[in-house]
Amino acid sequence: RMGHQLVATDAVTPNAIVCYTPAMPPGFIRIGVADGAEDGIPDNMDMGKGAWFLFQPPAVTMAANPYVGEPGGGALVTVTGYELVSFEPEGMLCHFGGDEPTTAYLISSVLARCESSAHAEGAVELELSATGPIQGLEYASFEYISSPRPVALDPPAGPSEGGARLVLTLAGAEHWTTGSGTQGTSAQFGTIWPLSIRSLGGGGVELFAPARTPSIAPLLITTDLSSSSPAFTGLKYNSYGLDSEVTVLATYPERSISSGGSLVDVTIAKRGEADEGVPRFCHFGLHATPAQFVNSWEVCLSGEHAYLPALNTTISGSVYEGPIDTLTTSSEINITSRYAQWISSSSAPTTAETAAWFAELRRGGQCAGFTTVRCIAPAQGAGWTQVTVGDPHTPPSGTGGVPFEYLAAPVLFLSQPADGGIGGGSVARITGSHLHGAEACWSGSDVVDAHVVSSSLTYCETPGARMPGQFALGLGADSPPAGDAVLAFTYKEDFIPLSLTPTGGSNSGGVLVTITVHPDSIHAQASDSLCHIGTIGVRARANAMGYECVTPASVGFTASVALSLNGADRTPESNILSFAYRPDPVTLSASVTSFVSSGGAELFIEGSIPRGVYEDIFCIFNGDYSAPATVIDVEEVCVGGSNWNAAAGQSANRCLGSAIVRCIAPALPSGAVSLSLAAIPSDSFTPYLLSPLPGAEIFVLPAPHVAFVEPAYASTSGGDVIHLKGKHMKVDSIDVVVGSAPESALVRVVSSAVASIELPAHIEGSAVIIPRINGQLAENSVSSNMPQIEYVSPSHVVGATPMDGSE
């Protein structure tokens, strides 16, 4: 029962019922429970029973001020309308579009204040409701707009009395023209807002700093005319007292990396030579670090055209000699000191007179005082800041300082090599980014100079280590680097080479050399081993004795040999490890043009052989087979002295000639083969080499093979013709040795499988048939499987029976 109306219940529980309110005029009514679904209210029912319930008119929203705000929310918006009444605590809600509503602060029935919620840029409907859901009929418009973001302020400091003209650069206001409206944007100076701004065009605006107590205040931009912006979105402005300025003249160095830690000498203008009144802190921007007194000194000038020079111009001949910055040279300037002014004078003053003279110069403003303090640069983001001095409890003035650059901290990617010997001396090639600000290389606690090539490449020579192991290798300044500025570098035992085998070889290269190492050297863990032969580096591999590599081609000279275990460092070069290059023997001609494949042929080769290698000559067949050779004869003509053409650069004796070399051919496959001479040292591990120079071409013939003979018997007196049957017999210069006959028998070749000979005389018995080519016997010529012929005594006819017969 709601007033005079009955409403059906929607849900019933033992302790409660649920009903929906009908439409009713504004006002209070009683809500009770009816006995049934009667039409209307019985006349005798007591209307005074039940709970009071208010039908309230819906809130009407008319306007919002301000009507714009930041997308991040937080703007205080004053809403005007009517029926802005709620009888429940925090019952009035503010709806910004479809976002979660916020609670409204009711000022009166026609005025309320809402705090905007976070929302994307754009216009939304702002409506107030006291009953939860919104009507969607009467609402105000509210627009979310991103305000321009301050990115630069000039100057960053000014007197606390205010009035300083400030130029503020805004990101997002580049489209503003000079003198144009700022679209409801204003400045916020600490807690003072709004402050009017004027567009200068191109994103710049100007404003005037208000007066305030000396402090650091945030300077922000907001589009909300009724509330402030978060301080973290603005820039810092330093309001200082005029009596707090101290002039900083120079810093050394003028930059540091952003990780900080650099020792910075700050020189200020200060009279006197004592440490009294020295600033106790250095300010790097807004960061303060303790200052340590270094020294103080004075420079006094006299003369008609004397003036005080700028700092860091060289003053010679005075007590202080050092660089001072930009002094205009003039022969009329007389820079003097207590010593230089009077040392050349015959009437040099006493100590008291000198003190009085300096006091007069000071009174005349002809003395400049300097004081240097030393500070540690704190960590800051990359960019420019200002170095000032003062008290830690007083904000830096922002004036009277000098610029100081923070470079981005180095980020290291790779060190090549990544390991080296504990003796040091490894040149580490470090790649990365932002390396141009590095001043020193740190290896553990040891510091060496960094050689910066570019922002992405730096070289460091590693110091020695006390023991093998992994150390931190990094780039920094005066303090140890950390984080991305550090790489791992492994120190290993130093490599100790002992000998090189062989010590010489061909100009054409290809000689396998072995570097024998000390047993205590740890070489199995080499990451990138190289042999450096002269100026050429070739890959090396570990073996049981040390390392081995193959020599590259080069001209005839003795090359130093060194080994690198990390691809960069080399073992010390010495005469012990050297390789003598020498010319290759030249093959001129061979005594034969063919021989049988079974080997054993005696060859005589004429060639040009370098001096000193007569004992190391080999015959090389096709580069796959070798046979030792012996020099049996040498003919040589040497030219030198007065008969030599010195103008042509031939200042030393030269010898030309040839040698005769003998070798025995090994068994070879049949076919054409190349024959060349090669010098292979006796201590070489390379069995043979293919000479790069052309050699003689020789044909290797298959050895003739006789399977059987027909007939198998012959007369001891000789003259019988027999047929040889086998293979490979159709060759030139073939003959046959029959048993122990002193002369060979000529062969009439019918085909490669059939030949015939006329047998020589031979003693009675078996005789072996052995074929030859060019007088050379096959290796198996005495084998038992060679065919044999049986020699028998010739027949003698002594008579016939019968003596006659039929015609």
Tell me what you see in this structure:
- Helices cover 2% and strands 45% of the residues.
- The protein has 807 residues and is mostly beta strands.
Short recap of the structure:
The chain is an all-beta fold and 807 residues long. The chain has 1 helix and 65 strands. The longest helix has 13 residues, at 351-363.
Question: What's the main sheet like?
Answer: 9 strands, mixed
Extended strand count = 65
Principal-axis shape equals elongated
Query: Regions with pLDDT < 50 over 5+ consecutive residues?
Result: 304-351, 641-652
Radius of gyration: 55 Å
* Percent of residues in helices: under 10%
What structural class is derived from the secondary structure elements? mainly beta
**How large a portion of the residues is in β-strands, by DSSP E?**
over 45%
* Average pLDDT, all residues: 76
Number of helices: 1
- Distance separating the two termini: 174 Å
